[in-house]
Write a structure and sequence with these properties.
Chain lengths: 366, 132
Amino acid sequence: MNRTSIHDAHVALGAKMVDFAGWRMPVQYGPILDEVRSVRTAVGLFDLSHMGRVFATGPDATAFLDRIATNHCAKIPAGAIRYGLFCREDGNPIDDLLVYRDGENAFFLVVNASNTAADLAWMREHAAGFEVEIVDETATLAMLALQGSGSQAVLQAVTEGCDLASIKYYRFAHGTVCGIPDVRISRTGYTGEDGFEVYVPDAEGPRVWNALMEVGGEHGLSPIGLGARDTLRLEAGMALYGHEIDGEHNPIEAGLSFGVSFAEEKGDWIGRAALARVKESPTKRLMGITTKGPRVPRQGYELFDGATRVGYVVSGSVSPTLETNIASVYVDIGLDDAGRELELDIRGKRQGARLQELPFYSRTRK
Amino acid sequence: MRPEDRKYTKSHEWVKLDGATMLIGITDFAVNELCSGNEGDLVYCDLPEEGRQLEAGETFGEIESVKAVSDLNTPVAGTVADVNAAIEDHLEILSRDPWKEGWLIRIKPVIKTLDGLMDASEYEELLAQEQH
């Protein structure tokens, strides 16, 4: 089992540690719902060093990524980040990822921990004929996230040579963080709040973590585990591989068309034809439900309109932000109208549920 | 050490002889697995109707936390003589006192024996293995 460089700090904070995608990770430090509220009202600190980090560089890097990723990589401005997926020929994804463009033919990719090995194998398999170098930097870089309205103040307190206010959403820059030069800092996250993700040499992980914990004290900073992270992303309507998308759930029906480019200039790419067909005639659509009652919707529970099965849950949670229970669900096309009242089958018992559009939560834009 | 006046199951229920009937509940370990020490994380508990007949090993209810749902199983066959209805509205009782106030159902057993179940020290050994 892998341990992140920050492992011992989590244990010292009393975190409940679990095995996740081959890593010992903190699932919670205290009540999960309190951790969700901390991020929504103040600021939270996350250790995401389990995420896969991969460089793709070389004369054909852009052409290579435009062949295997769903988004249009040639169009990404240097210093910007885009969401995309690696799909199979059948249009179903192997993983989703963030693509950072460092230069004309230099990219930094952030992929899911659970799929890193599969992604690397897929990339190397399809790199034949392209002059591209694929380097797995997962083990050499710690990854930390600050999420919540206090993020900028906390990170700026340990950052020099970079005005964080100048980094726009889904952009990145480099600065000196805790004295470490040239640290990659992006305005990204997986919570629906303003925030940053930073990448420091692995050995510096604990020092940066402790510095942010200390500086964050006056901003109400809390460490946040994977449990709250899952609820935060679900409230914000963000997909998670293994739930909204997987080897049987394509990005079009998941509402991720913003990460799928059919532009002519992109050329053909793996999964394009299949996804073009899905776009023409989708059979289901990802939506949200809120439920009536204390029970929590969970992956696999089915949705009914009377006796007819019309959909199923892919992620569910208690939502402290909405003060109700929520789920993302696939619903058959034709029944996918917001406000429709359906019933959820919870282990043999029916409970009322109301359909709505995603996301459940969207932060007020300033 | 857990109470020695009762027996334990591998699925973390306890059974205690109480006169002609038996009380069934779940252990502190089971509660903690569900809610990690945060009583507010327990959200739902479903208990059976009085008079329901149960086979040994049968599921008689469910308990749910923010994180997971667990079946409640009876290790002994019998008829449900009483249920602790207070639990369904006050799940925090389970984290405060799973041993006395937190009993779930009272069973009139078909056979009044707890043979084959673990005693407290055997249950402790099981937990030591699970937590390893």
